[in-house]
Structures are given as structure tokens and as C-alpha cells.
């Protein structure tokens, strides 16, 4: 299961990305650390328990939702809230699951999804990488050991950043070794 | 006791409110289905069929919500 839902996976099995060459091998597959999901998980949990909580407070005033609303409205309100809660959970989970960072034996790939309608697919060949930096900053990042890895390329393209990935120092080390090996071969 | 639903005006407002949000939500859930397709093309794991299934179940549930809102309220 960790290969499917983990945030730091070495040589994952059964994972293929758009545009992967036949001889290209995924060495490192990353997502943001699971801790970054805490906010929306708490909101989803609140939505899930919203009606029981609301009923509890109404009961303190000797009333209930079924007394305030006719049965048909009560049923529809509960059904829609259940659907919204699932939709909110599903959408956020998908965003986390599919926002991924991949290191192969040829390149680094950054797949980002912003909201429902925006996908960004960035890549840089390993031979074009000039500099790799890792940043661990903030309380949660120190406590759970995750941070950003910034990859500067020789090309005019923008810097690629792996955000909130676990073990950023190991990612940097792996990338540096790969780049040295590739540049050493070509010299 | 105050029972807001006994007012016809509030009933109409409530009905329009539920109709509007259920239709908007149905559109949202359809976009989620398309988005899951796009995501599954970006990279594939063994869970891609499960996500597609959940997205379609979510979409059909939102259609059911629209039907219920229009029939029941």
C-alpha cells in the first residue's frame, strides 16, 4: 500500500507517467508530506459531523432540525451535505495524490494540478541541472522532516521546485549523485 | 414554536436555493470526472480504475440529488 499512497517511494512498481520513454526508469517518486493534508482532513471531519453537532446544540434549546425543517427539506439537506463532504474530501485527496515529483534516470518531472482546471507539467533533463538546494523551514517541517527541493537548470526555463517533500536532503543527495554520474559520463 | 417552513415565501426561497446548489454541484461533479481522466493520463497507478469509479459514482449521486430536489421539494 505504501507504494500507492506513500510520499517518498524509491523505484516504485506499476507507476507510469505521461511521456515516459520505454527505457526510462523511475528512481524516486514523491508527493507532498502527508502532514500537509491535515487542514482539509479536519475540515472534512467537521463537515461529516456538522449535522450531529448542529442537532446537539439545537437539542440544548429543546428543538431539533426535524422540527425546524419539513421532512423532505431535512432529507435533502442531509443528502446534499453528505455529497459535498465526500466531494470536498475526494477533490483534496486527488490533488494531493496526483501532485507528484518524479526523478528518473534521465530527467526530473514536476506534475502540478491547481484546482479543477489547471495542470502544469514541468521537466528538466538531468544534464541541464546546474544546482540543487534543499530548504527545511518552519515548525511542522522541522518536526516531520520535510521541505522544498529547488532545482536550477541551465536552460531559460523556470526553476523546478519539489514542495514539501519528505527527506529533502536525501532527494538532493540522490539528484547530485545522478547529475555527477551523467556529467561525468559525458565529459 | 417558530417554524420557518410554514411560511410559503421561505419555502420557495429554500426550494430555489436547493435547486441552484444541486445543479451547480452536478456540473462540478462532472468536471471532477473529466479531471480524474486527465490525472490518470498524467501518471498511472493500480488505483486509477478505483478513482474513475468513485468519480462516476459521485457524478451519478449528484444527478440523483438534482432529481430528488426537483421531485421531492
Question: Could you characterize the architecture of this molecule?
Answer:
The complex is a heterodimer of chains A (187) and B (73). Chain A has helices at 2-5, 38-48, 50-60, 65-68, 71-98, 139-144, 168-186; strands at 8-10, 16-17, 26-30, 100-104, 107-114, 118-125, 129-135, 146-153, 160-166. Chain A is an alpha+beta fold and 187 residues long. Chain A has two domains: 2-15 and 24-32 and 99-186, PH-domain like (Roll); 39-93. In chain A, strands 1-3-4-5-6 form a five-stranded antiparallel β-sheet. In chain A, strands 7-8-9 form a three-stranded antiparallel β-sheet. In chain A, helix 2 packs antiparallel against helix 5. Chain A is elongated. The two termini of chain A are 41 Å apart. Chain B is mainly alpha-helical. Helix content of chain B is 82%, strand content 3%. Chain B contains two helices and one strand, in the order αβα. Chain B has helices spanning 8-42, 48-72, and one strand at residues 43-44. In chain B, helix 1 (8-42) runs antiparallel to helix 2. Chain B is elongated, with a radius of gyration of 17 Å. Chain B starts with 7 loop residues before the first helix and ends with a helix. Chain A binds chain B through residues 4, 14-18, 63, 67-70, 72-73, 75-77, 79-80, 83-84, 86-87, 90-91, 94, 97-98, 100, 102, 111, 113, 116-117, 119, 121, and chain B through 1, 3-5, 14, 18, 21-22, 25, 28-29, 31-32, 35-36, 38-39, 41-47, 51, 54-55, 58, 61-62, 65, 68-69, 72-73. Strand 2 of chain A pairs antiparallel with strand 1 (43-44) of chain B.
Amino acid at each position: 500500500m505504501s507504494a500507492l499512497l506513500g510520499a517518498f517511494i524509491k523505484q516504485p512498481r506499476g507507476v507510469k507517467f505521461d511521456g515516459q520513454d520505454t527505457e526510462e526508469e523511475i528512481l524516486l517518486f514523491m508527493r507532498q508530506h502527508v502532514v500537509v493534508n491535515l487542514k482539509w482532513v479536519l475540515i472534512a471531519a467537521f463537515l461529516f459531523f456538522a449535522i450531529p453537532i448542529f442537532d446537539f446544540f439545537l437539542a440544548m434549546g429543546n428543538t431539533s432540525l426535524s422540527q425546524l425543517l419539513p421532512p423532505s427539506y431535512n432529507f435533502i439537506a442531509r443528502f446534499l451535505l453528505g455529497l459535498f463532504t465526500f466531494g470536498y474530501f475526494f477533490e483534496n485527496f486527488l490533488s494531493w495524490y496526483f501532485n507528484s515529483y518524479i526523478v528518473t534516470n534521465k530527467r526530473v518531472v514536476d506534475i502540478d494540478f491547481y484546482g479543477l482546471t489547471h495542470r502544469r507539467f514541468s521537466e528538466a533533463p538531468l544534464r541541464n541541472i546546474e544546482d540543487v538546494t534543499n530548504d527545511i523551514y518552519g515548525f511542522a517541517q522541522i518536526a516531520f522532516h520535510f521541505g522544498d527541493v529547488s532545482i536550477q537548470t541551465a536552460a531559460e526555463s523556470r526553476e523546478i521546485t519539489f514542495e514539501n517533500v519528505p527527506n529533502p536532503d536525501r532527494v538532493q543527495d540522490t539528484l547530485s549523485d545522478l547529475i555527477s554520474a551523467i556529467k561525468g559520463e559525458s565529459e | 414554536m417558530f417554524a420557518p417552513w410554514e411560511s410559503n415565501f421561505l419555502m420557495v426561497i429554500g426550494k430555489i436555493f436547493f435547486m441552484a446548489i444541486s445543479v451547480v454541484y452536478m456540473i462540478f461533479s462532472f468536471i471532477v470526472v473529466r479531471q480524474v481522466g486527465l490525472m490518470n493520463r498524467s501518471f498511472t497507478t493500480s488505483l486509477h480504475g478505483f478513482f474513475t469509479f468513485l468519480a462516476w459514482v459521485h457524478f451519478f449521486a449528484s444527478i440523483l440529488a438534482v432529481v430528488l430536489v426537483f421531485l421531492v421539494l
